[in-house]
């Protein structure tokens, strides 16, 4: 069978073209250049896989270079974590380098630039520098210190280096063009004074180079051939090249910068600043909290390196920004774990079951397959006895027609065991079921070959023998945010979209084969999802993290909420046509309940905007959402559609729409002033008493 070779992405095409035009393959060199000011996240994984993938493809070295030019934010802890993440992902670097290795060389080059007249010391305040730099549509103007003499600049710069001046008193700037259409070329900063301890150089330096200056020069020192960064650095390329022009020697490799689209993942924040905020405010339990998108967090949650590399391969390398659905990352994980994770049984919300016709002192060890996807995984023995746990949700006393689990009078199969039939229950004083009594078909043992064992029943349940069960703490993790783009909404703090149900800790019971697990071991808890052993586990206390469910619950929830809103809009039509007040009230309550149950901010917001049109029922729906949803407020809606909503609603033929618009304006003090005239005119012409009551209650 012929195999079609995967097409090259655009950076590989550039490299192939370079090689075809005579660039020597042995001069290819790449780098991954993290700043050690936080832990790496899934976005960095894309860059890691890209750079190290190029190294593997072209048998070229890849350096790990820490851009440690800002001691105010950088720590050795981050350096160590970054190295651990890279090794866990399966990549090895050629050389470990640091921008701080080059501080002396960078300083000497800066001195040479001062002597050439292409750099100068500026003593303005940061506010004055920003003002004289101009705007994108207005050119900058030369500052008062731009034409200082070389001698004065050298003296001041040496004083900066020696620590003679306080922070913020002077900076070194490149002298380029204050009228450039690229604002980054308007005399950018090269050095600033920082009296801070550096994690590698200690207190040796009082000045530190800016990223734009240090980055390209560091690439040049290391002879990096292809310097790959994300799209936000497109405008920096001109400056990157200008700094190289100051030092370039024709006998050496000149680095070239290329930009690709970074990874944007929904239901996630990627900003290191915001991730740090989550850590510092104890919203999460550290950088490796399993809800964090950090590589260490994903590793602790149970993600595999292979699943992350596969994800990066699937999303590819592009020039255009887009948003990737986090469900694709979860899909890659399921695909990997499905092949490798042993199947075991665990019960997380237990209810006791007693087989009344099973001997009290009897126990059996039943054969169970470890992984049907892996022929080499083999089998294990699982103990079975008269009393066992099942999930509480797997039983209903009286079940609907399509309930394929245990109920009174109905049969189910126990995984790897027998067919049982619900007979009766025992309840406590509050009516909660404490025991389920069942009988079993003695000839129905799975795999026994008997006629009874081949009998088909509606459902199969997992279970754990109470006598043999091991108690475990199970942490049920979910997405950290309930909105697709938590940090993209105007006037909204991303913390407003925290998922309050992102972690639930329960006491569960697992089968005894898990007595001697190791940190990081991964399992499929049958019918529940994939779980792994957390680092908090001890010999006396097992702790498991839920890695991912067997199905994409969020996709199902999203579809349900979208369908619910569509069906609710149909209920609006019924409500408007209903003549009986009692029936109308019932319909309205159902509509409001549905609106209040929707968690998806973006979906709610978009639904409001879509219903701003000259249609009474649509206006009624939009106003009801705005009034009753706790996820969206007037300030969250763009001003143009919001203004249209109010204006059209106050003119609506439906009194209910007019009343709702008045109530929403009463809650919207920011926009109420703009509608006072329209409300006054409505008050003079309105004939509906309920609308008039609403107007009279409104304080204008």
Structural notes for this entry:
The protein has 700 residues and is of the alpha/beta class. Helix 13 runs antiparallel to helix 14 (581-597) and helix 13 (553-577) packs across helix 16. The N and C termini lie far apart (79 Å). 37% of the residues are buried. The mean pLDDT is 94.
Write the layout of secondary structure elements.
Layout (H helix, E strand, L loop, with lengths): L9 H11 L9 E3 L9 H16 L4 E5 L9 H14 L6 E3 L4 H14 L2 E4 L3 H7 L17 H13 L8 E4 L14 E5 L13 E3 L1 H12 L3 E5 L6 H9 L10 E5 L3 E2 L6 H9 L14 H7 L3 H11 L7 E2 L1 H15 L2 E2 L1 E2 L2 E6 L7 E7 L9 E7 L1 E5 L3 E2 L9 E2 L3 E4 L4 E9 L5 E8 L19 E2 L2 E2 L4 E8 L25 E8 L11 E4 L3 E5 L8 E7 L4 H25 L3 H17 L3 H10 L5 H13 L10 H12 L4 H13 L1 H4 L3 H10 L3 H9 L3
Parallel strand pairs: 1-2, 2-3, 8-9, 10-11, 12-27, 14-22, 18-19, 20-23, 25-29
Antiparallel strand pairs: 4-5, 5-6, 6-7, 13-26, 14-17, 15-16, 17-24, 20-21, 21-22, 25-26, 27-28, 28-29
Helix pairs in contact: 2-11, 4-6, 7-8, 11-12, 13-14, 13-16, 15-16, 16-18, 17-18, 18-21
């Amino acid at each position: 069978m012929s195999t079609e070779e995967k097409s090259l992405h655009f950076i590989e095409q550039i490299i192939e073209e370079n090689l075809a035009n005579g660039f020597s393959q042995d001069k290819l060199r790449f780098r991954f250049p993290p700043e050690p000011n936080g832990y790496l996240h899934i976005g960095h994984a894309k860059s890691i896989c890209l750079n190290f993938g190029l190294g593997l493809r072209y048998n070229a070295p890849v350096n790990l270079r820490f851009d440690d030019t800002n001691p105010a934010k950088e720590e050795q802890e981050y350096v160590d974590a970054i190295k651990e993440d890279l090794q866990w992902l399966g990549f090895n670097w050629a050389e470990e380098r640091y921008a701080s290795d080059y501080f002396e060389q960078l300083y000497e080059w800066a001195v040479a630039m001062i002597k050439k007249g292409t750099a100068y010391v500026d003593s303005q305040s940061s506010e004055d520098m920003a003002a004289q730099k101009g705007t994108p549509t207005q050119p900058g103007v030369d500052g008062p210190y731009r034409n200082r003499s070389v001698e004065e600049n050298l003296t001041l710069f040496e004083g900066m280096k020696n620590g003679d001046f306080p922070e913020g008193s002077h900076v070194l700037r490149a002298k380029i063009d204050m009228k450039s259409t690229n604002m980054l070329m308007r005399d950018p900063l090269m050095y600033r004074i920082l009296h801070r301890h550096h994690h590698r150089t200690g207190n040796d330096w009082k000045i530190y180079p800016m990223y734009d200056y240090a980055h390209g020069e560091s690439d040049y020192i290391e002879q990096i051939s292809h310097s790959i960064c994300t799209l936000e650095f497109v405008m920096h390329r001109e400056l990157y090249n200008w700094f190289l022009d100051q030092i370039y020697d024709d006998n050496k490799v000149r680095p070239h910068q290329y930009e690709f689209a970074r990874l944007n993942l929904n239901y996630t924040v990627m900003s290191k600043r915001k991730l740090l905020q989550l850590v510092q405010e104890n919203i999460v339990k550290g950088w490796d909290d399993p809800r964090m998108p950090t590589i260490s967090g994903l590793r602790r949650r149970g993600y595999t390196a292979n699943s992350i590399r596969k994800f990066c391969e699937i999303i590819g390398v592009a020039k255009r920004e887009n948003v990737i659905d986090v469900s694709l990352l979860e899909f890659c994980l399921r695909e990997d774990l499905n092949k490798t994770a042993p199947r075991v049984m665990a019960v997380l919300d237990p209810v006791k079951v007693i087989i009344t016709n099973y001997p009290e002192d009897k126990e059996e060890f039943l054969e169970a397959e470890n992984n049907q996807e892996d022929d080499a995984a083999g089998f294990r023995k699982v103990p079975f006895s008269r009393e066992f746990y099942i999930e509480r949700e797997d039983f209903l006393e009286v079940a609907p027609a399509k309930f394929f689990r245990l109920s009174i009078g109905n049969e189910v199969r126990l995984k790897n065991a027998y067919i049982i039939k619900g007979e009766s229950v025992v309840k406590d004083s509050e009516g909660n079921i404490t025991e389920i009594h069942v009988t079993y078909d003695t000839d129905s043992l799975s795999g026994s070959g008997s006629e009874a064992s081949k009998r088909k029943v509606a459902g199969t349940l997992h279970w754990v023998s109470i006598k043999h069960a091991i108690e475990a703490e199970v942490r049920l993790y979910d997405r950290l945010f309930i909105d697709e783009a938590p940090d993209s909404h105007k006037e909204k703090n991303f913390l407003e979209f925290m998922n309050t149900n992102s972690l639930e800790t329960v006491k569960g019971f697992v089968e005894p084969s898990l007595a001697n697990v190791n940190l990081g071991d991964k399992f499929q808890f049958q019918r529940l999802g994939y779980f792994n052993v957390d680092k908090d586990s001890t010999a006396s206390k097992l702790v498991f993290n839920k890695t991912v469910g067997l199905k994409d619950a969020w996709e199902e929830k999203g579809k349900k909420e979208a369908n619910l809103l569509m069906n609710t809009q149909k209920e609006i039509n019924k409500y408007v046509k209903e003549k009986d007040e009692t029936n109308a009230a019932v319909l309205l309550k159902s509509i409001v309940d549905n609106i209040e149950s929707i968690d998806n901010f973006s979906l709610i917001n978009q639904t409001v905007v879509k219903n701003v049109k000259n249609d009474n029922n649509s206006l009624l729906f939009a106003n009801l959402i705005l009034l009753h949803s706790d996820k969206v407020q007037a300030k969250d809606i763009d001003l143009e559609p919001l203004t249209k909503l109010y204006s059209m609603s106050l003119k609506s033929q439906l009194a209910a729409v007019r009343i709702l618009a008045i109530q929403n304006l009463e809650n919207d003090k920011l926009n109420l002033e703009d509608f006072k005239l329209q409300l006054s005119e409505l008050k003079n012409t309105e004939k509906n008493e309920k609308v008039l009551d609403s107007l009279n209650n409104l304080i204008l």
